[in-house]
């Protein structure tokens, strides 16, 4: 496990996916890592289980956990392939909107926290695109 400090650029609710937003500037310091909620179709860098406040400095612990728990943006059945939504929550995967990030381990309704097994990738728009004869 490794850990480091990062600055939160906006308020982020608990159980959301996070993304690196770059590094600080002259004011923050060039060694300051910046965090934002992950966006639609992105492959997230981290997940938070607590609410994060804009401007705060948090300690990120990288544990390489294969299962993350995140708020669902919609009703999701068990075994659903999911992707990151616009606000760091998860929704069902749509290839035209970006990458999938895993599959759910149980069913949930919108707003509940769902556990998903991380499995990143992208599927072809047309299933024949993935094959060559």
Overall shape: it is elongated
Number of helices: 0
Our Rg estimate from Cα atoms comes to 16 Å
- Order of H and E elements: EEEEEEEEEE
Overall mean pLDDT stands at 90
Strand content: 35-45%
Report on the architecture of this protein.
This protein is mainly β. Helices cover 0% and strands 41% of the residues. It has strands at residues 2-8, 16-23, 33-37, 46-48, 57-62, 67-71, 81-84, 90-92, 100-104, 113-121. It has a 5-stranded mixed β-sheet, with no helix packed on it. The mean pLDDT is 90.
Descriptive keywords:
133 residues; elongated; five-stranded mixed beta sheet; five-stranded antiparallel beta sheet; mainly beta; 10 strands
Give a quick rundown of the structure.
The chain has 133 residues and is mainly β. The protein has no helices and ten strands.
What's the arrangement of secondary structure elements?
Elements: E1 2-8, E2 16-23, E3 33-37, E4 46-48, E5 57-62, E6 67-71, E7 81-84, E8 90-92, E9 100-104, E10 113-121
Parallel strand pairs: 1-3
Antiparallel strand pairs: 1-5, 2-3, 2-4, 6-10, 7-8, 7-9, 9-10
């Amino acid at each position: 496990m490794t850990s480091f400090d990062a600055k939160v650029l906006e308020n982020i609710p608990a159980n959301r996916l996070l993304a690196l937003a770059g590094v600080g500037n002259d004011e923050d310091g060039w060694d300051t890592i910046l965090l934002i909620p992950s966006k639609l179709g992105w492959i997230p860098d981290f997940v938070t289980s607590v609410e994060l406040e804009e401007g705060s400095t948090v300690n990120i612990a990288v544990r390489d956990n294969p299962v993350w728990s995140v708020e669902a943006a919609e009703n999701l059945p068990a075994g659903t392939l999911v992707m990151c939504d616009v606000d760091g929550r998860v929704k069902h995967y749509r290839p035209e909107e970006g990458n999938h990030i895993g599959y759910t381990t149980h069913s949930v309704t919108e707003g509940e926290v769902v556990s998903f097994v991380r499995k990143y990738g992208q599927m072809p728009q047309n299933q024949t695109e993935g094959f060559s004869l």
